[in-house]
Amino acid sequence: MTQSTDGLLPSVQLESTNPQPFTSQTLTGHYSVLYFYPKDSTPGCTTEGLDFQRLLPEFKQLGAEIYGVSLDSIKRHENFKNKQGFEFDLVSDPEASLCSAFGVYQLKKNFGKEYMGIVRSTFLLDPQGKTLHEWRKVKVKGHAEEVLETLKEITTAL
Predict the structure, then answer these.
(1) Residue 20 CA to its chain's centroid (Å)
(2) What is the DSSP string of 73-137?
(3) What is the pLDDT of residues 132-150, one digit of tens each?
(4) Comparing C-alpha atoms, which of 46, 27, 130, 116 is closest to residue 84?
(5) In which element (H, E) is residue 60 found?
(6) Region 24-29: what's the mean pLDDT?
(7) Distance between CA atoms of 105 and 28, rounded to whole angstroms?
(8) Which one, 8, 109, 146, 158, has least CB within 10 Å?
């Protein structure tokens, strides 16, 4: 499954920390920040989630919802979300279908070992689900602020 050439979302149905299934329709009707991260409860992923949580009121004020996506199970997501106090949903993508559609599930190398995993990336989507901006190979420090600033620029230009 790959993202369509018109930039619109692929058709998916995944579990999330919201009781309702996460589908491509979940990402319509409002701006969406879809951030892909490697693993729950690791230092970088925790910091990234906390940064988005800290700025969540500003994102919501601009009409945006935030969704974190990893390969982790719903149980791990729920534990991570509750422990960190995240007020946004975490999406479980165990088959990497959404990750693959956005091209973030890639061959990685760590200490000489190769494995498939998520390359930390973020996508800003418009209310129709079309990608407005993307960040690949994200460094955590200052990233949530950069996404917020880009959203501000886009919404004030309208």
Answers:
(1) 17
(2) -HHHHHHHHHHHT--SEEEE-TT-HHHHHTT-EEEEEETTEEEEEEPPEEEEE-TTS-EEEEE-S
(3) 999 999 999 999 999 999 9
(4) 46
(5) helix 43-61
(6) 93
(7) 23
(8) 158
> What contacts 54, CB < 8 A, 6 or more positions away?
144
End-to-end CA distance of the chain: 32
pTM: 0.93
Q: Which amino acid is at 93?
A: D
Active site amino acids: 45
Q: Give 70-77 contacts, CB < 8 A, sequence gap 24+.
A: 70/36, 70/37, 70/38, 70/39, 70/40, 70/45, 70/118, 71/39, 71/96, 71/99, 71/117, 71/118, 72/39, 72/40, 74/15, 74/16, 74/17, 76/40, 76/41, 77/16, 77/17, 77/40
78: left (phi over 0), alpha (psi -120 to 50) or beta: alpha
Phi/psi of residue 110, nearest 5 degrees: -150, 120
Q: 3-state DSSP call for residue 65? A: strand
